[in-house]
Amino acid sequence: MSNTKRVALVTGASGGIGRAVAHRLAADGMAVGVHYAGNKTAADDLVKAIEAAHGRAVAVTGDVADESAMSDAFDQVEAAFGGIDVVVHTAGVMILGPVADFDLDALDRMHRTNIRGTFVVTQQAARRVRPGGAIVTFSTSVTRLAFPGYAPYVASKGAVEAMTLVLAREMRGRDITVNAVAPGPTATPLFLDGKDQETVDRLAAQPPMERLGTPDDIAETVSFLAGPGRWVNGQVIFTNGGVA
Q1: Which end of the chain has the smaller Cβ count within 10 Å, N or C?
Q2: Measured between alpha carbons, how far is 104 from 240 in angstroms, rounded to an integer?
Q3: How many C-beta atoms surround the C-beta of residue 107 within 10 A?
Q4: What is the DSSP string of 18-64?
Q5: How far is residue 47 from each of residues 34, 51, 106, measured CA to CA in Å?
Q6: Within a 13 Å sphere around the CA of 113, how many CA atoms are in the beta-carbon half?
């Protein structure tokens, strides 16, 4: 499949996995909409890096849970590149804590971004992605690993998986694939924040590969789903190096 004229929008592309995904899709030949929520400098730097490598990119912003803001972001990408073929929704927040003590205001804030945000972005994607395209959402391997302290976050990602699998079936006849990527422990600021070295080392030792994942590892899976992986549809792809 030639990606020369394909267009991707990557939410949360100003850092971590989203940044790696945007770089990878640009390297694959796609024009990329680099979405950010607050870090304009990082998004602009990414656009410059993609353009320096002879790619095409544009920065767009907006709260992923705000339907008007995201409609505007999709409009801007379509205006810049003529349409959208791939939407990768990496944007999300992770707040950890035990169920018994968890702050319900924090729960509401996280679920607004992770659940409503996913719904808003995939709603726009379902309306706009062109035939032959792909929609990729993000879950987490902790839905299966069940680490203590992750229940509020995992609850939001369980909702993402459910939405993704239903949307794949709602796209019948459109030639659009819909899948979720579920990373395991991955060396990103979001994952490493608040963890001591002993915890990081313990988690890194769990996969048979005996290391943490990298954003590039995750971007490789997204690249497959966004490009040649046309017969993978309605799936949650656990991208975790073999963590059981």
Answers
A1: C
A2: 30
A3: 18
A4: HHHHHHHHHHTT-EEEEEESS-HHHHHHHHHHHHHTT--EEEEE--T
A5: 7, 6, 32
A6: 19
pLDDT tens digits, one per residue of 77-108: 999 999 999 999 999 999 999 999 999 999 99
Q: Specify the amino acid at residue 74.
A: F
How confident is the prediction for the chain on average, in pLDDT? 95
Domains of the chain with bracketed CATH = 7-187+214-239 (3.40.50.720)
Summarised one tens digit per residue, pLDDT across range 161-216 is 999 999 999 999 999 999 999 999 898 877 777 788 888 888 888 899 889 999 99
- Beta-carbon count within 10 A of 220 CB: 14
Residue 223 pLDDT exceeds 60: yes
- 62: nearest Cα among 33, 83, 84, 85: 33
Q: Are 36 and 59 in contact (CB under 8 A)?
A: yes
Active site residue 153: yes
CA dihedral 237, 224, 88, 148 (to 10 degrees): 30
Q: Per-residue b/e over 79-98, b at no fewer than 16 CB within 10 Å? A: eebeebbbbbbbbbbbbbbe
Q: Could you tell me the two tokens for 139?
A: 């879950």
Distance of alpha carbon 223 from alpha carbon 63, whole angstroms: 25
Instruction: State the Cα–Cα distance between residues 242 and 207, nearest whole angstrom.
Output: 5
Q: Give the active site residue among 153, 183, 185, 212.
A: 153
Which whole number is the average pLDDT over 36-58? 96
